[in-house]
Fold:
Amino acid sequence: MSHAEVVVVGSVNADLVVSVRRLPGAGETVTGGTFARHGGGKGANQAVAAARAGARVAMVGAVGADDLGEEALRKLAGEGVDVAAVARLDDVATGVALIVVDERGENQIAVASGANAELEGDEVAAALARLTGDSSGPRGVVVLGHEVPVAAVVAGIEAARRAGWTAVLNPAPARELPEDVGAVVLTPNADEARALAGEADVEAAARALAGRTGAPVLITLGADGALLLDGDHVERLPAPRVDVVDTTGAGDTVNGALAAGLAAGRPLREAVRFALTAAALSTRAGGARAGMPRRDEVLAAL
Structure:
């Protein structure tokens, strides 16, 4: 069995980023930008955030047998993430995200899923059986996301349940939740929560979602922090104020740092405060991962 404390089941992408003065409107071209290429994918970003936050992390996903896939895995391994359970698939491209960022740090993102769309449920189940062991072993956290097929998400939830691990589902992009989603901590942003719950008010959305899962719900609110519903208790937790350069990857940092905090035994509210601080610090540099802080930096900022 692996000694992983956090296992991320999710996407691995290459991020192609153009920074411009302002975001283009529909049909508009904005010139004068600068270009950079980064490792990306919400799952891979969450894995890096968890590793920098001090957790031992393993990644379950898929890339193409191409240069972008090789580079993506090399970058993950360089962060200390175990990539042995990431499949290398022939005849399919590694996922790519095209990102435009403006001078305020706001962004637009379009994704070509590539190999991420080929991740199968039985592969996830087999990988997690190796990585989590049985319910008699140490407990950790499985992080899941919606940039891989629903069968992979369901397999991850079921494997976490069998092992007695905490499951965290970041339902981004928003799509119908699996029917048997129970006992999963949900971490949508406000728009995703509204779409999933059919409620305009975020607190009402949190309560509706918790009614489906019977577990805490964390709704991220960007610069306004987050709303945490744990049982009947609702609390709005602020985010630290920082000079924002780029918000890309801030949500991924929340999820990775939250998982690391929970795996380290922090109570949920403390783990959320740790995660929000990490996310705020992450926005001070361009690119999804460049600003992701390490554990000691987050602790110093709390």
In short: The first strand starts at residue 6 and ends at 9.
